[in-house]
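--- STAGE predict ---
source: upstream dedup step, 1 unique chain passed
mode: sequence only
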Amino acid sequence: MLQVPLMFVCTCGAERVNLAIFLRLPICTALLSSAPHSHAFLECVFVQSTATLRFPEPLRGRACYLDGLRVAHCVPNNEHIVFMGDSVARYQWLALAQSLHQGEELSASEFPSIVKEREWLGWMQFFTGTTRRMHPNHHCDCYREYAKPVGSKTIENRYFWHMVTNDSGQVVSTLNLTFINVLDKHGQVMGHWAPWSPLSDVRQRTMTKHRFEPGWSLDWVETIEKFVAKLSPPPTVLVLNSGLWGPLSNETFATLLAAAAKQAAPRVLWKTTTRMRNAGVTKWRRTDLLARRTFREIFDAAYLTRSCSAADFWDPRHFLPHVYNRLNAALLWQLYGKPLGCTSFQKGRCTAYAPVNVLAAGGLGSSTSNPGSSQMRDVSDIEQAVRNTTISLHGWEGVKQALSPLQWDSLQTVLWLDSINPAIKFDHKAVVGDSIAADGVNGSLLLAILRGAPFAPPPTSIGIRRTLHVHRLRTLLEQLIHKQTR
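--- STAGE serialize ---
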């Protein structure tokens, strides 16, 4: 069994005490729960030593975890990633935080699972239990009771940090992860702790609350401007989604949200809505269309989960652990580049490693112990998801600036149709196709339909019924083609 040097760094008043110990990994949880962390003025931090050596040499000293194929998924030092979104975003955040905390990806065998709230006795037990799993490096400013409308009495703001001892024996913080639950895109985000006085006492986010008494309440845009932007250390990455609460309602709100996010963090990603259990496999192409046009970078979770089967879900909306593992692998790949995987170990040390595209014949992060048929196991799937980002020519940027309509794919075609005069109606589902074999209507086929080409279906087949609209769309497309070929 692999032995790993671990350390507690405890602060009591002005004194700092290092409790260095040598223990086996399965004992970590028991040790942490027995540590004297319950005293009001004693703060302990769990520290992983870089001397574990199980990660590829270029990655040592970072926050990392290994998947089932021994691929190391890592975050560069001094990053602060903030998630704001729905319950799927929460579970993805919890999977990422626990994976980084324990150094290995989330297991499907743990019970109760941190990504299955219903395996716990109730919401407060879920908050307390998931916090203890990463104790003492996780704070949960959380409270929830059942109320109507759903979420109106919910607070769930989570904070995780990762620390290591470097080669000089110094304890350094390498990573911060924050999650802010947004249960209604136009509703209120609430909390007890805040990065301003008098709510900045750390006890505001560590003590279990027994009543619904929020210290602050802001809308989504205000939360980014007044709360997220003032976090310390400042956010470096902000991941947003409205997910199961529906798409962004209008262009004005989307623009305000994107502007606030851009001011709060140097890198902002919109996470598209993950597939529901009974959704069609092409629905991803008509998901979050306004957000895809508004935000410069997209994390295409809709694309990544498009082929999930019923075996990948534990309820109609939420996934089993292996899906969150693969979403996190894709997110870290998009943010920080292709990971490295260990190809050989000697006495617990990773002695040889290679880029993931060399390793991945069996699939990125796949595990034979995990059920499901998700196509996220293909490296090519993640590479395509990265290409779908708006900053590439495969997203809205290609429609807006570079590509001729004759080069548009189905996603770009539906983005363009959705962006024009809302009085021109069309059938989203017909444009993107409704089966695995359907490639949907790309730009060249759309032009053929509008021109009445003999090999093309009629405009009514994609929901365009008025002759005036057919002429208008054809003129617009031909103007764009002419502009690109000049």
